[in-house]
Amino acid sequence: MITRTIRRATRAVTAAARFRRLITMLPLWLAPTLLLVSIVGTALVARSAGAPAPAMSATPSTPPARIVSLAPSVTETLFALGAGPRVVAVSDYCDYPPEVAALPKIGSFLSPNVEAIVALRPDVVIGTPSPGNVEAVTALRRLGIRVEIDDPEHLSDLPRVTRMIASAAGVPEDGERLVNAIEDEIEAVRTRVAGAPLRRVLMVVGHDPLVAVGQTSFLGELLAGARAVNVAPAPAVWPHLNLEFVIAADPEIVIDSSMGSEDGASATRFWERFPSLAAVRAGNVHAFRSYRVLRPGPRLPAAFADLARLIHPERWS
Fold first, then answer.
1. Which pTM does this prediction carry?
2. Residue 23 phi/psi, 5° resolution?
3. In this structure, is the dihedral angle defined by the CA atoms of residues 128, 226, 98 and 178, taken in order, positive or negative?
């Protein structure tokens, strides 16, 4: 029975690997969009593909000694909770804190390696929903392995998911402390920009086509919290824009999170072709590639502060 279950899961992982290869064949602009959808927590793709539903189980009387994390945001939260020493494996994308570099990798959140996870004998596996991990998660549960899956769709969901991870790790009190710390830090940023003039902002995650951060996305909520007027049209989560729309909207600030914008040169070259834009005239085109903002976890307040600083630098003078 166990062997058959692992074989079925292996076939699922193979299918997920094909899905991952397909992603690598897509145009480059889709890479940041996929990361934003899958990691930030909109989870639109995951849910439409029938991602595994949460399966909250009773918290064991003894904290789990062996924890496997399937996502970077989960890993960062576990370490912030003080549960890092009990994490025995992480996903391929987990790179923070530095200690995780020495831990075994069990595949990506798109295609976790069931055999590798089973071999580690985990007490609990904690992850986020994705299109590729449905059958793998189902297989682990059939084998009697406790799996907890959840993902914040909105900023207001972050406390709930943090508490879920803390409960799964057997440290609910530490979870409450972390939730309070995150909320206090986010509120400190809001307080810092309170009363600042609203500024028209366009945040993009791709150039060809031009893909923007929508008002209802996780990042869109952060923009609103930073006293920005998101010029991207509602209600699309990741609206595709034409240049005529951008010129008409005339954003005062452009935040460019597209691929290749890490050093700012690519973003500058792209936007300087539109000298009529207020953001270009004022030199307010900013490259912003922060993985912290893609991971709804304990470092999100710092990423929120980085974003707010780009919009209202005078509040940090």
1. 0.80
2. -60, -40
3. negative
